[in-house]
Amino acid sequence: MLKALVRKSQEARNQAYCPYSKFRVGAAVLASNGTVFTGCNVENACYTAGLCAERTAICKAVSEGHTSFKAIAIASDLEDRFISPCGACRQFMREFGSQWDVYLSKSDGSYKLMTVEELLPCSFGGAPRNRAVFLAFGVGWG
């Protein structure tokens, strides 16, 4: 299953819309029930409006009712090092748990395994824990 997940992230990379950076990224997230959702990076002329591959894949899964994940594989065209998610994607992944696997790959398909916790130590996240914080500041929940 792992090799298939990495392969799906590579396939998703091929769909990337990146006319500005030319840096293609793909991701494949494995939901707890075994369903795989893929995503690619989508750039925008307004740079901050772009979306990373990891968040695209996770949003596709969430929009289909999945919020529990086993793993995510990330692929790019980097040959000399493993692709690593940006800080926003690390925090986004953390929202859905800290102990799921993240496979960082190179263009040849080799990979390095880390957990969300290893990528974002001492993190803040997860809806149940944060509810009191939101309520303390008078922010609505849900």
TrEMBL record:
<feature type="domain" description="CMP/dCMP-type deaminase">
    <location>
        <begin position="1"/>
        <end position="127"/>
    </location>
</feature>
<dbReference type="InterPro" id="IPR016192">
    <property type="entry name" value="APOBEC/CMP_deaminase_Zn-bd"/>
</dbReference>
<feature type="binding site">
    <location>
        <position position="86"/>
    </location>
    <ligand>
        <name>Zn(2+)</name>
    </ligand>
</feature>
<feature type="binding site">
    <location>
        <position position="52"/>
    </location>
    <ligand>
        <name>Zn(2+)</name>
    </ligand>
</feature>
<keyword id="KW-0378">Hydrolase</keyword>
<dbReference type="InterPro" id="IPR006262">
    <property type="entry name" value="Cyt_deam_tetra"/>
</dbReference>
<dbReference type="Pfam" id="PF00383">
    <property type="entry name" value="dCMP_cyt_deam_1"/>
</dbReference>
<dbReference type="GO" id="GO:0072527">
    <property type="term" value="P:pyrimidine-containing compound metabolic process"/>
</dbReference>
<dbReference type="InterPro" id="IPR002125">
    <property type="entry name" value="CMP_dCMP_dom"/>
</dbReference>
<comment type="function">
    <text>This enzyme scavenges exogenous and endogenous cytidine and 2'-deoxycytidine for UMP synthesis.</text>
</comment>
<dbReference type="GO" id="GO:0008270">
    <property type="term" value="F:zinc ion binding"/>
</dbReference>
<dbReference type="GO" id="GO:0042802">
    <property type="term" value="F:identical protein binding"/>
</dbReference>
<feature type="binding site">
    <location>
        <position position="89"/>
    </location>
    <ligand>
        <name>Zn(2+)</name>
    </ligand>
</feature>
<dbReference type="GO" id="GO:0004126">
    <property type="term" value="F:cytidine deaminase activity"/>
</dbReference>
<comment type="similarity">
    <text>Belongs to the cytidine and deoxycytidylate deaminase family.</text>
</comment>
<protein>
    <recommendedName>
        <fullName>Cytidine deaminase</fullName>
        <ecNumber>3.5.4.5</ecNumber>
    </recommendedName>
</protein>
<dbReference type="InterPro" id="IPR016193">
    <property type="entry name" value="Cytidine_deaminase-like"/>
</dbReference>
<dbReference type="GO" id="GO:0055086">
    <property type="term" value="P:nucleobase-containing small molecule metabolic process"/>
</dbReference>
<feature type="binding site">
    <location>
        <begin position="41"/>
        <end position="47"/>
    </location>
    <ligand>
        <name>substrate</name>
    </ligand>
</feature>
<dbReference type="InterPro" id="IPR050202">
    <property type="entry name" value="Cyt/Deoxycyt_deaminase"/>
</dbReference>
<dbReference type="GO" id="GO:0005829">
    <property type="term" value="C:cytosol"/>
</dbReference>
<keyword id="KW-0479">Metal-binding</keyword>
<feature type="active site" description="Proton donor">
    <location>
        <position position="54"/>
    </location>
</feature>
<keyword id="KW-0862">Zinc</keyword>
